[in-house]
Amino acid sequence: MSTQINGNKANGASGGISPKITFYTNHACPWAQRAQITLKALGLSYEEVIIPLDRPREQWYLEINPRGLVPSVKISNGILHDEIVTESAIVSTFLADSYPSSAFWPPSHESPTSALTRARITFFVDTWFSKVSSLSYPIMRAEGSEWDEKARELVKAVEKEIEPLLEGAAPFFGGSTVITLAEALTAPFVIRLQTFSEAGYLPSSLLKDLKALPNYSKWSEALSTEKSVTLNYDGPSIAKLTAQKMNLKGK
Predict the structure, then answer these.
(1) Cα separation of 172 and 186, whole Å?
(2) pTM score
(3) What's the whole-number average pLDDT of the chain?
């Protein structure tokens, strides 16, 4: 376990009292990265505690999160006291609702269109995970001609399901010029497609074909340079670790 302090500002939501947030994470975990992106996008300061994932969890952490997973946050803000929130989408949405940002995740009653914006973000995230994300790991395990065939299946899914939803991205979802909750919840998996391709665990043709999709290409390129996304992201190390876990060899 290691700790450090992160953040540029505190964004209090309880009578001007700045929140005290402890963020339990691991930099190699894409699920934990979702919460990290959210914290950074909202400008929240936090204490970071690294939880090793290559060994059984220590008892003190199981008392925080009995599932032993990351991320978890512990938060106090003058009303809440050392409350624990777990699971990446729940953590991210909780933080976005607690410390609202119109651009990131608008409060539902902020304007007549806020609820619709939230619904569209939620649909986009659901589409990514139900139609696209699950296709990447079978490619990494495939052999021979099946390797390229499965890569083409993923590209077709992105073209059919994601490309239309990114119409008007500027460069982020819904015409936003800054990152939204849609990106926070999907970016860790988007950037891993590039990382795994560059490491030889996904076909190089995958990136080439994805770059041919204009909306997706613009959006994914913006993600690859977004500071809240690239923070603590060590692509080569993550590729190596993933390959070891999956017992992969470069094709």
Answers:
(1) 12
(2) 0.92
(3) 93
